[in-house]
Amino acid sequence: MDSNGFDDDAGRTALTRQSQAYEGLRSLLLSGSIEPGTRLTEADLTRMFSVSRSTMRTVLVRLAQEGYVTSEVNRGVRTRSFSVEEAADILEARETLESALAGKAAERATEEEILGLRRTLEAMEDCKARGDATGYSQGNRRFHQQVKEAAHQQTLARAYDTLLYPLVMRQYRNLSAPHPRAGSLEEHQAILWAIITRNPQAATAAMSHHVSSARQALLLHVRRERTAG
């Protein structure tokens, strides 16, 4: 207890629970397991994360400020959905940031980090050969995470982490398209080779091409759906 009569341990415990609830709900949203526009009730969330309503309310306010959920009068809190224009902006920002991170990874990756990238790509090659789309997707996410970490550039990494790209993909992914996308594996191979050869310009260009190709494929699907509708 401090000189003002407050229980420091209780305060720290409350902050820890709030942080855990925030990280837990944020991870759940980013996992894509909740449909866009789904209403989130405080009662359900407090039970899920074993926190008080006031704590969960604080968490939801923070998530709304960061763009993960929306809060409207008479509609409550809902998972975020994006207009096509918003989605395009986020995907364009992802391309810029990931390209810069790949360039830095070519300069700064350790031999251990490069070995990790090699192993991930080998696993992705194996998944593609076996037709394991889920395993390939998991490897793809791991590869991009490893590139970000190998860049050793915290400012770029923080900016990248604020992007709501996983939520955009959850809303707009073309589930009828073959997976992985044609050329995806070869694009990852080009990124890795540029990092191995310590060529930041090539790594930046390879990542830009990879992310741009994915972005164009997604937006082409959206435009086709609009035309058909």
- Strand portion, in percent? under 5%
Q: Tell me how many strands there are.
A: 3
Indicate the radius of gyration in whole angstroms: 20 Å
Mean pLDDT: 88
Q: Which residues sit in consecutive blocks of at least 5 with pLDDT less than 50? A: none
SS summary, helix count: 10
Structural commentary:
With 229 residues, the chain is mainly alpha-helical. It is built from ten helices and three strands, in the order αβααββααααααα. It has helices at 8-30, 42-49, 53-65, 84-108, 111-130, 133-151, 154-161, 165-172, 184-196, 200-228; strands at residues 39-40, 69-72, 76-79. Helix 4 packs antiparallel against helix 10 and helix 9 runs antiparallel to helix 10. The N and C termini lie far apart (64 Å). One of its GO terms (molecular function) is DNA binding. InterPro entries: GntR_C (IPR011711), TF_FadR/GntR_C (IPR008920), Tscrpt_reg_HTH_GntR (IPR000524), WH-like_DNA-bd_sf (IPR036388), WH_DNA-bd_sf (IPR036390). Pfam families: FCD, GntR.
Blueprint of the fold:
Elements: H1 8-30, E1 39-40, H2 42-49, H3 53-65, E2 69-72, E3 76-79, H4 84-108, H5 111-130, H6 133-151, H7 154-161, H8 165-172, H9 184-196, H10 200-228
Antiparallel strand pairs: 1-3, 2-3
Helix pairs in contact: 1-3, 2-3, 4-6, 4-7, 4-9, 4-10, 5-6, 5-9, 9-10
Organism: Streptomyces griseoviridis
Keywords: DNA-binding, Transcription, Transcription regulation
InterPro entries: GntR_C (IPR011711), TF_FadR/GntR_C (IPR008920), Tscrpt_reg_HTH_GntR (IPR000524), WH-like_DNA-bd_sf (IPR036388), WH_DNA-bd_sf (IPR036390)
